Structures are given as C-alpha cells and as structure tokens.
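Input sequence (380 aa), recorded before submission:
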Amino acid sequence: MLKKVAILANGGDVSGFNAVIRAIIKTAENNNVECYGFIDGYRGLLNNDIIRLCTSANGNAIGILPKGGSIIGSSTNANVFNYPVEENGKTVYKDLSDKCVENIKKNEIDCLFTLGGDGTQKSARDFSLKGINVIGVPKTIDNDVACTEITFGYNTAVSVAADALDRLHTTGETHHRIMVLEVMGRYAGWIALESAIAGGADVALIPEIPYDINKAAEKILNRKALGKEFSVVVVAEGAMPINGSISIKNVRNNGNGVDNNKLGGAGEKVAQQLQELTGLEARCTVLGYMQRGGTPTAYDRVLSTKYGAKAMQLALEGKFNTLAVIKNGRLDSVPLEDVVGENKVIGAVSGNTPESNLKRVNMDDDLVKTARSIGINLGD
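Predicted structure, token format:
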C-alpha cells in the first residue's frame, strides 16, 4: 500500500510542469496517498528540501494548471552521482547519491516521480538500481526522450516558434530580407522542423541533416527569381554544415557525466553566409528562453495531465522503475532500462554521447516527407 509519494522536477523548465504535478497530486489524493515535492530537483533531494503538496482549500497546488514553470522549482546539471564539493579550496566531484537514498528512506517515500528529460531519467534509472521505486515522466521541449512519441512542453515550444515565424514573415516581406530564426532543440531537430512547417518557412536546417549552405542559398535565389524577395529560414541550435561542427557558445565546467557544451551561434552564422551568397540583407533572431516559459497550450495541459495521472496509476499498480509514455497514440509505460539504452555507466547522464538513446528525427518521419513535399529546403 502506497502511503507517501514525492515529485521532483529536473532540467530546463517547460510549460506543463505544473499540470503534471497537479495531476499526480489529485490522483494521489483520490487514492488517500500523501504527496510531497523536493524543491529544485535532484538538488532538493540531496539537501532534503521537501514540502507537502495538496489541493485543499488553502493548498499550494491550487490554480497551477495554466501556470508556466514549476511550483517546486527545477535544477539543471545537478548530477548527484558526480556532484561538485568544495574541499581545501578546490572543487572536487563526488557521488552523493547515497545521501539522496537516505533522504528518501528517512521521509518514508514509497515512490519518487522524476519529471525530466534523458539526463533526468538516466539518474532515475541509476536510483532504481539502488533500490528506490522510481517512475519517470518525459519532459523536454526538445522532444528527444526515447520510447515515447511526444514529451510535454514540446507543443508549447513549437507554438511559440511558429508565432515568431508569423511575425518575422511580415518583416521579411516588408523589407525584402532573409529572416533567420534560431530555435532550441539541442541535438534533435523536432522544434525546428515542425515550427518551419507550421510557420511557412522556406528553409529548415536541423542537426540530423548536415547542411550545404549553397543549397539553402539556391532555394532563396530561386524565390527571388520568381519575384519573392524575402525568405524565412529556421535553424536548429544544433545544426551543422557538411564537414563542419556544431556552434558552441561556451563550455561550462559542471563536472563529468553532463553535457557541458552551451550551444549558440548557429543562426547568426547561417544569416551571414546567406547574405553573402544571395545579396539580400539577412537578420537573425534567437528565440531562446521564450520557448520554455509561459502558459502551456491546451494540448500540453491535456498531455501533461494524462502523463501525471498515468504515472500515479503506475505507482498504485506497483509498476515501478518505468517511464510513462505515449505509444501508438495511447498511454503506456516502458522500463527505464529501455529509455537509458546503452548509456549504462552510473552517473553518466549526458545525452550527447554515442551510447545515449536520444530520439532524433528519422529521414522516414512524416515531418521530413511533408517538408520536402511542400518545398521546404533542408539544406541537402
């Protein structure tokens, strides 16, 4: 019998965090289970920073369905299996996961819900090997978590990007410019590709297809020859040229096991090259954190609620160490081991490794076929 469950939100914020939290709480309450939250993700778990969550008259989980962000915060790059500690004036990295296990047992938590992306779920799998009952919920605007068709937060990010493209379209048309929009997505091109289709872009450059800038320029010049003296280009932050590399803004020092590369600059690079090759003025807009925040779309509210309710149901059924997923359009679950794939090393949580089981855009995907059918140039 479950008595207490706890939630942690980890990684970059997304619209839909609170909807998942609310659904878990409400389903727990309907089954006489107490619900708690660890503040600021795995960091809160390490520091035992925990609060009771409830939807009673004066509860802290009332009215949060349309609210962006997370009422229990979130941490990024908090790898408790390789955590920075100051010793003798120097930073060393230690495995502090046993402290987290101790906190879970001290609070008598029967199941821990981990809301996050590939790195979050990798740590969840590692905690399951230490005997903790864990259930994951796939969160990321990048839509790159393995074994599920869609992650919560993604639809809102695409909607924000599509709205930005609508606005850039009118400016480009008025001033006869190439308008470049750089979007997030890390090493997967889902946001770039889907927003390009929704926003009527002419070119979409994604990480899965190393691009030839001359092909993109040719598309723009062909439009110009037809009297269309403007173009709209979407560039994923992880896009790279043929025989080139991704654009890295800076390299952080957050320890081993996490992705220390901060991407940035891909859009500006493409804009400069297209201006030189076409003779048209080019401007780059980096959408950045606009994609992460604010009110979730109705789609994400429903999806998040479905995920949260499903996760709690899995806990009630004793189906631990799993990830709630959408498979063939329906709620389901898969073992966390399947999500991790070949990334077996304890403490290695980065998604940017050959062993990681990231879901990237496949060339047989309907989005790719649709983009090509309607004439969107993919840089190849």
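Checked by second reader. The two ends are 56 Å apart (CA to CA).
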